Amino acid sequence: MMAVAAAQKNREMFAIKKSYSIENGYPARRRSLVDDARFETLVVKQTKQSVLEEARQRANDAGLTEEEIVLAKTIAESPDSEQSVQKAALVLRLREGIGSLGRILKTIENFKGAITHVETRPSKKEGLQFEVLVKIDMSRQSLLQLIRNLRQSAALDGVTLLADNSVSIKDPWFPRHAADLDNCNHLMTKYEPDLDMNHPGFADKEYRARRKVIAEIAFAYKYGDPIPSIPYTETENETWSRVFNTVLDLVPKHACVEYQRVFKKLQEERIFEPHRIPQLQEVSDFLKRNTGFTLRPAAGLLTARDFLSSLAFRIFQSTQYVRHVNSPYHTPEPDCIHELLGHMPLLADPSFAQFSQEIGLASLGASDEEIEKLSTIYWFTVEFGLCKEGPEVKAYGAGLLSAYGELLHALSDKCEHRAFDPSITALQKYQDQDYQPIYYVAESFEDAKEKFRRWVATMSRPFEVRFNPHTQSVEVLDSVDRMEGLISQLNTEMTHLTNAVNKMKARQFA
User: Where does the Biopterin-dependent aromatic amino acid hydroxylase family profile domain start and stop, copy by copy (predicted)?
Assistant: First the structure.
């Protein structure tokens, strides 16, 4: 639990302080999860370096590691915790032979540290004899004092503090329960009409004020609350109607069969109607009945990490504001028309919902570089994906199904179609000024899931995670006890499935 708390402290220390907007040098015609992920990586690196350098100058110690700085900050903010017993691991790099190890271990005991494990290996660094891993239990304050003392030893070339378990302090904090998504609302584009002169609503004070009101409703939302209803204006409903009727004309010919099936069901249940914008709560209830997905309101385009992490819990963070009336067929950032018409139908399809959740699960604890790759895969699948249906190619990407211009372009001979391969798609450059020149075509959702699973297995994350739908939590599979509990559950499920098959066979041959 210490490492998880430290990772969360790390997130707070190195959090993005500014929105990703025109003031930060991003004058693209539309905002994308992909570029936001790249910007997030850059800002986190710059912020982290600044914080670390400041802490090292303050302590007059250039050797301070990130883990030590986080630990020191935790002690400073919670003085009562300085005597809490801390599990930790130190890597000691010996200049001399193994003979000096005894003196070092005695020093640890003098600082009231309980040594639980010692392991040595030959050093790969020229001029050094050995590296020693020492696991210890001691108070946090004593641990910091010990490290400073050891750094002054002539027998050592260096000391490195590690975390105590598989969740490293360096690993990003990630939500463990759906309620933790209350902390995953960092925006990369915030109130864009106020900042971007090219935004359709920049010169419309009434529209900008309306956006702020709806955004504040989203910021106030907490896990477990009913989703607040938005009393949409006549103008907003008219904008919806224009886009809805356009999509209605294009769906039969260009949308995949899964999208068409759910779209029709939404019409039959009178959730999708041409004259009114659906409320998120009624759509959320529909999704929950069909695939277990639910919605929560978002104030704008979230950081890539925050947005993807919500998918792990089968939760989609959706905006509630509406694009400007003067630009009904294009919006520079997500709005509720894009979310509702583009994303909602396929989130009610079991296979697609599973694919979306697996992208979310893969993002938990992933490095910044891997978040960029996952965002790119999401962009070329969930947002702009195509799939095969017999000899034809159909659209399933939300960005295509809610934007008729790019939909027709994507299915024309003016662009290139490539087979979906996560290892290649993850590195594809994204076009943010115009329509995409390249689109990726999946054989099917099942095929896309299988390829994605194989690719995820190559990621650097040193642990696996599993979503427990009964508790709405994510479990890190890093202990024998957890694995045994999961295997027991799977055995019970297999017993039920086997019994069902046997009973069907008995009826068939009776």
Answer: 159-505
Residues serving a catalytic function are: 338, 343, 383, 402
DSSP codes of every residue in 331-353: -SS--HHIIIIIIHHHHTSHHHH
Report the alpha-carbon angle 296-264-32, nearest 5.
Answer: 45
Beta bridge partners of 467: 474
Inter-CA distances, 145 with 72, 137, 285, 455, 459, Å: 11, 14, 55, 44, 36
The structure tokens listed for 491 are 């055995």
Give me 184's structure tokens: 């995953």
Q: Can you list the alpha helix ranges (DSSP code H) found in 297-428?
A: 304-311, 336-337, 344-347, 350-363, 368-378, 398-401, 404-410, 422-425
Q: Known binding site for Fe cation: residues? A: 338, 343, 383
Other CB atoms within 10 Å distance of the CB of residue 443: 13
Each residue's pLDDT tens digit, 134-162: 888 888 888 888 888 888 888 888 888 87
Q: Residues at the annotated binding site?
A: 338, 343, 383
Phi, psi of 213 (to 5 degrees): -60, -45
Is residue 17 very low, low, confident or very high in pLDDT (cuts 50, 70, 90)?
very low
Facing residues of 160 across strands?
91
Residue 191: predicted pLDDT: 41
pLDDT tens for each residue of 450-501: 999 999 999 888 888 999 999 999 988 876 676 777 787 778 888 888 888 8
